[in-house]
Amino acid sequence: MASTLLNDLGRRATPWLLPALALAGWQAAVSAGLVSNRFMPAPLDVARAGIAAASTGELWTNLGVSALRAIAGFAIGGGIGFALGLANGLSRLSERLTDTSVQMVRNVPHLSLIPLVILWFGIGEEAKLFLVALGVFFPIYANTLHGIRSVDPGLVEMGRVYGMSRAELFRRVVLPGALPSIFVGLRYGLGIMWLTLIVAETISASSGLGYMAMQAREFMLVDVVVLAILIYALLGKLADALTRQLERATLAWNPAYRTA
Amino acid sequence: MLLDAPRPDALGSTRDDASAAEAPRAATTRPPASGCGIAVTVRDLRKAFDGHTVIEGLDLHIPAGQFTTVVGRSGCGKSTLLRLILGLETPTGGRIQLEEPAGASRRNAPPKRIMFQDPRLLPWARVVDNVAVGLTGLGSRKERRERALAALAEVGLADKAGQWPATLSGGQRQRVALARALVSGPGLLALDEPLGALDALTRIGMQGLIERIWQQQGFTALLVTHDVSEAVALADRILVVDAGRIALDVRVDVPRPRRRGDPDLAALEGRILEHLLGESPAA
User: Fold this and answer.
1) Does the domain formed by B1-20+34-111+218-283 have CATH 3.40.640.10?
2) Is the pLDDT of residue B254 over 60?
3) Which residue on chain A is closest to B177 by alpha carbon?
4) Residue A57 contacts B, CB cutoff 8 Å
5) Backbone phi, then psi, for A234, in 5-degree steps?
6) What is the CATH number of domain A41-251?
7) Is A164 touching B (CB cutoff 8 A)?
8) What is the ipTM metric for this complex?
9) Chain B interface, mutation test: which of A175, A253, A254, most B Cβ atoms within 10 Å?
10) Across residues B150-164, what is the average pLDDT?
11) Residue B212 has pLDDT above 90, yes or no
12) What does A5-62 look like in DSSP terms, one character per residue?
């Protein structure tokens, strides 16, 4: 009984072992003077900077601004990508009309548009939303389309034989069949969402986490810079954990996603 | 024993069966009573894919409730014939007529069902919900579930109702597919080599199950197979299809239950195999 509890605890702790070791090694290296505090502050200093920023409220404001941008951009780009992926997966006409154009635009790195976007929107919110939405759009579009295309035609035929209407066929056969692929798109999209946001905020912003890091650089506050980077890592992990939870809830039928 | 044309008594038997089908088809946990078979008449049927002829002027009558088996070498058009009768393909020419049992109105006409070689279960639906797919558009949710559970019990899988299809064996999945095909009380059940992928023992078990349920429910069964011994064990009548035509039409008059290794069946099996092999020595 006690041993199973211990086992369970051990299994839960395993993924965090490596980050914890890295932190400890880092702290030791800085404390021992192997690394200059000017270039790489110790974890405890970063923690102190975090507490200071949190107590003035600066951290929360910036975090909130960034999160809002991320979510809004993701919702817009992901929503359009999902809708267009569905449309092109279900309708040949829609695909013929739009897919070539989408593929052409896809090959332009969206971050290369930053100068143009700054010219268009300045450094306002629109610029960040536009870039995030654009970046998130493609992986979600491509994977939704691919998911719908790869639904087993035998199952679709079966659904027709059993008298499913088009709506029912979509809800009961096509969408669940495409879901694993859509989730792959979701994960890629989340990664691109953070990447785009960081770059956009670092280059042109007056608030947000990236802005906070750039301001800190101006004043040589290395601990705040590192703090911002660590927060990005945590946010990325959080988004990933949420997706995983969602996958487990909706793909329980698939042996590949079943919880151990 | 050889029959080229439809049997003259076919229409009569349709009517007889239909009166038995008056039995309640109401929302109960039992599937509808026996005698709801659909008769099939095919006239001068032709089908070509991209100019390549698969079925060439085929005539056929299957009386209601008959267990007909279609055998033939692969590529002879037997599966296409089945898919044409089910309406999964449109014929290039000719006519297919399905005769509902008398008394069945358009609305409560018994459905046609097909069982494929692969089970084609929805992997994201529980076993019982997969069976309930067979009742799409019929009755309330609760009713569908009850009938699905009853059909699962019929194929001996009542205890698997809440499982995912991925956890079942190949034979169990095919039994779920059978339950799904039968849950609505079909008038015509087409079986497109449904047992081809199963191991020998499971296959014999499934043959017995299909025969028993067919005897209980009285639907018209149309089985496509390349296994002549399976055809001989199950069928009232065996059609050998070759080059898009019916080359041989044999009645199997051996009474049921049939014993495996029965000399009459063995002789018949030998005759059909000879016919199949004799058609093309190079094959």
Assistant:
1) no
2) yes
3) A158
4) no
5) -65, -40
6) 1.10.3720.10
7) yes
8) 0.78
9) A253
10) 93
11) yes
12) HHHHHHHHHHHHHHHHHHHHHHHHHHHTTSS-TTTS--HHHHHHHHHHHHHHTHHHHH
